[in-house]
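Appendix B, Record 12. Input sequence as logged:
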Amino acid sequence: MKFGIFTIVPWHETFTQQQALTEALEQIELADQLGIDEVWLGEHRFSRHGLLSGIWSFCGAVAGRTKNIRIGTAVIVLPLHNPILVAEEVAMLDVISGGRLNLGIGAGYQQQEFDGIGVDINTSRERFSEAVDVMIKAWTEERLTFHGKYTNVDDLWVLPKPIQKPYPPLFQAVSTSPASVDFAASRQIQVIAGGPTDIMGQAPQVIKMWREKMDEYGYEHAHLDPPMSKSIYVAPTMEEAEQDPIGLEDFSSRVLRSVGSNGSPVGMPMDANGNIAKGYEHWANRQRDRERRDDLGHAGLPPLRGTPDVVIERLKEVQEAGIEHVFGNFGFVGLPHWKVMRSIEMFATEVMPHFKEVTVS
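Logged structural output:
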């Protein structure tokens, strides 16, 4: 199995912004030293939900402070960016990290982020699909010529080129929508499951759907293990594992249902009048799903929370469901830094060896 650490660097009320960012870097450094395969970093802005608005500079800091861990984005919200600039940033990070970049991308969902940047969320799907094609051409062709709805350039020399060929592995955050899974497969992009698919117990089915679509397009995929995000927390006793999150585990849901700068909930593709953006109709019940996530009995796959022995048994259930690639946050927003560090260390030294050969650098 492959394992990763995940953070969007949420900003809890009891932390300073600098503390949240600094401690996140220390947690990533520890994961690197202990042989965890990957770190996944998510872009957000304009709320306490996540501080990684400057995700490229943060990824650069991670590249400079680590040696072996692969650096993934989960995700870059493509419609908020010029895809040529993204192609340049991705290539630069791939070069300075020695070819350690995984690029996770998504269409985004927080309308206040789109409003704040000045991008119409109703265009997010078409901007996303066009951006993917622009970036792939920028990486694989000596000079870029592209004439689309949002990008129009001729004979542009996009530099540098990435180390990994033809380009860094691509991953796409998807829900249960067949259209998003189909698009990912059509571009040979691995899906990232978790979030709503975990809440509804459908992550294994989504990955199976993706594999079937890859077959339809004639692409090899047996060697690929699409990742799934799950909450992970390891503690010395079950009492600690169950008591430590109390009062903390609903932080994300609390922030996402709060009112943002545009007068609608932070975590919804919705305007102040309650209108759901085009292409996001299946989000109507998403806040209710998030609140199910805060209930331990919410999903088809068990929460990876407990002592090392308990987490090992639950991870075996995940593996038996066909999931071979898992990443998580190893704690809860507002949890003391030392407890998150302890969770990472216990997972790496007492859980991981049961599923893989571990090399500690």
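The longest helix spans residues 17-33.
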